[in-house]
Amino acid sequence: MEESFLEHLIGMPVATKTFGIQTPSGLLLKLRHDMTRLHNARSSTGSRYAAIDCAISAVHLIDWLLQAVTQKRHVELTGKNKNEHGAISGFIEKQAVKLHGLETCRLLANTIKHRVLNKGDDESFKTSHSIIFEPPFHADAPETWNGEISPRSFIVHIDGRNEDIHALLDQLEREWRVFLAGEGFLDAELSKQEIDYERFVE
Questions:
Q1: Which domain of life is it from (predicted)?
Q2: The pTM is what?
Q3: Which of 55, 57, 75, 90 sits CB 3.0–4.6 Å from 79 for a disulfide?
């Protein structure tokens, strides 16, 4: 009898504080799983919750990476020594060209955690969502429509710039993958984990 994905994970020999996630690439795989939930969501609640989890995972990857690098590389990536205040902000600022959307994800993750930010709160930052009719809905012939309504989340800025969270996270996941590979943290086990995940997730 074929094992389930849950049984496959439970069979992992090493007990950890993080349910078996031990490396930056492992957390990247969690981000990919969160994104699958986001793209497959068929309710506004499911879409919003998945978007929150994606943002949190994307930001926490910074912590995991900085814990794994040397002191010298830490300074190069952040402009700060290890355990020095401001390393996360320094990383986001210095790597903005390579990792787009991290600041947006940081705002979302921190606002969800604290609700109101004491420092660096952006009053123009708002979130909302829209819906998509599949197939398209024609207002002049509503009785002919027979399809599904799906949520589409996006970040809304009062200055008029709307940022689609799906597109932002898709790009950021790809950029994190390239970035971690460049830093030597896409371990060989990740490909096997991805194959196993694709095998069991459906």
A1: Bacteria
A2: 0.73
A3: 90
- Higher local confidence (pLDDT), 135 or 193: 135
* 16-52: b (≥16 Cβ within 10 Å) or e: eeeeeebbbbbbbbbbbbbbeebeebeebeebbebbb
- Token pair belonging to 55: 């943002």
For the sheet with 148-157, list strands across it: 125-134, 148-157, 162-164
Sign of the alpha-carbon torsion through 97, 103, 104, 109: positive
Angle value at C-alpha 58, between 187 and 34, nearest 5 degrees: 85
- Judged against a pLDDT cut of 50, whether residue 118 lies above it is answered with no
Rounded (to 5) percent helix, strand, coil in the chain? 55, 10, 35
Return mean pLDDT, the chain. Answer: 77
As a residue count, the chain comes to 202
C-alpha 165/C-alpha 149 separation (Å) is 18
For the record, the structure tokens of 117 come out as 């930010």
- What is the rounded CA–CA span in Å between residue 34 and residue 48? 11
